[in-house]
Amino acid sequence: MGFATIIISAVGIVYDYFGYGGEKFLYGLWGLWWVDVALSLVICFGQLHVMFTRQTHEISVMTTVWLLPIVTLIVASAAGGVVAQALVPIDTSRVCLTLAVCMALVTIGITLAIAIFTIYLQRLIVHGLPEGITIFSAFLPLGPLGQSGYSFLLLGEICRDMFPLQGDSISNIFMNEMTPHVLYTLAWVTSFALWSFATCWLLLALLALGDVLTKNTLPFKITFWGMIFPNGVYANLTIQLGDSIDSRILRVWGAIYAVFTFCLWLFAMYRTLPSIWDGSIFEAPCLTKPEQAELMGEDPVQESIHSIPPSPVRRVCRLSAGAGVGSGSEMPEKMIPS
């Protein structure tokens, strides 16, 4: 997903805004997008296959983290839409190919995501809310819903701008003058439906988070960063829908939510920097203390007594300080060879 973000930024900022590179640069980004598509397919279907054949799962402890491999397809679709929109005045044939692939990717992605939503809803009804800081995963459904809604809206705009096509080898469907209007309308309705579904999950997530906060104080962990992307794409879709129909309500709500997401990012950054030093950011909620200690290269028996594993930053500092000790100093007991 980070690779797709680089492609989107390169098209929007480097190519469109600064006008750098010309057609060759754009074709290069189009080629990189195909690499992103291949990686997304491998990650999505590869991880699902591993979940089917190599792992054991229980509904009672599942979270929306299951969505992460699937979102890669949706993000790749949105990135392809951005590239295709820039290619419209240059190369119609490649735009049609990109359009078809993007439509397939976002359809597969959102279909699988909705299946996961069904399982997650059953988990919430039967087994209750996730415990502790894993409650932040309740916001993850906004990611695939918001990004797929944006992808459908973008693909609809491309169809509106490019169709109808002319030529002997073109299907009559794409030569009809009504085709762009029908396709754009279907895309917009689909996008708005996904935005509505995302708003539903946003309300459920806020209620769930409020319920947990009334009972417990949640420590800041790296899982908090999982709230940034879903809320960001939801805000982006809200703004895009508002622009598409000139809706002041959607624009205002999108702007408010974008500011809220930016504040979340500032808070996460503010809390992350000191927690890197004391090591609390590296404590995985899904692992027990001995398991964390083993991954950190520490003694599992000793670390099971402590609540927070030692920070890698502080450990490096201690090792650096130890390296400066004179040769006459005694070595720590654990470092004396047997």
From TrEMBL:
Family to which this protein belongs: Belongs to the tellurite-resistance/dicarboxylate transporter (TDT) family.
| Topology in the lipid bilayer | Multi-pass membrane protein
Q: Which residues cross the membrane?
A: 32-52, 64-85, 97-121, 133-155, 185-210, 222-242, 248-268
User: Which PANTHER family does the protein's record reference?
Assistant: PTHR31686, SULFITE EFFLUX PUMP SSU1 (PTHR31686:SF1)
Lineage per the UniProt record: Eukaryota, Fungi, Dikarya, Basidiomycota, Agaricomycotina
Against InterPro entries, the record matches this protein to:
SLAC1/Mae1/Ssu1/TehA, Sulfite_efflux_TDT, Voltage-dep_anion_channel_sf
The principal localisation class reads membrane
Q: What is this protein called?
A: C4-dicarboxylate transporter/malic acid transport protein
